[in-house]
Design brief:
Pfam families: adh_short_C2. With 235 residues, the protein is α/β, with parallel strands linked by helices. The chain is 45% helix and 17% strand. Helix 3 packs parallel to helix 5.
Amino acid sequence: MRKRSALVTGGGRGIGLAVARALAEGGDAVAVTCRSAEPPDGLLGIPCDVTDSASVDAAFTAAEKAHGPVEVMVANAGTTMDQLGAMMSESAFTSVLDTNLTGVFRTVRRGLRGMIRARTGRIVLISSVVAMQGARGQANYGASKAGLIGLARSLAREVGGRGITVNVVTPGFITTDMTKDLPDKVKEAALAGIPLGRYGDADDVARVVRFLASDEAAYLTGAIVPVDGGMGMGY
């Protein structure tokens, strides 16, 4: 695979970091955006707040200056603010959507500039099994992650003629910093619903993202690819 310029948002830890390392191992020059985590060793770390268009623009400019026009973009940055819907504040709902959905829109919009000019590109959005089956206390998170599917499929129709693919990955229960502190009852219930009988890890997701970003996936766009051990089967 030829060396490309890749940008992974939320790449300082967890799934984002695993994706960034997988792309780098494949030969790409990878930049990761970090809001709270320390920049990872061996990767170009760029501060970015996806809720701020100017910050997103600055991050892309820095990546382009270091590695050239971005050809692979993975939108992974996200947040949670869980609460039962009847008690959830409006600010808790809108702030999660601003990061997880509108933040992805800001990132993709900026990334498409160079891809459209180059008539090539790979965009992968990291959604969640929650987008497909819902989860108690995550009306905001589920809505934001479901919105990524409509965003991706609309964009796939718009830019497919320019050689740009747009796909969505929906991870299930993945062992990360976000899930490790969940109560044991929640973890046990999740495990009981996974046909493969184990939790996923970040590398499981990273390998699928690397495939979607590769030349082998050149005829795959607008797809929803579950990486959940069968957890969301049937949705």
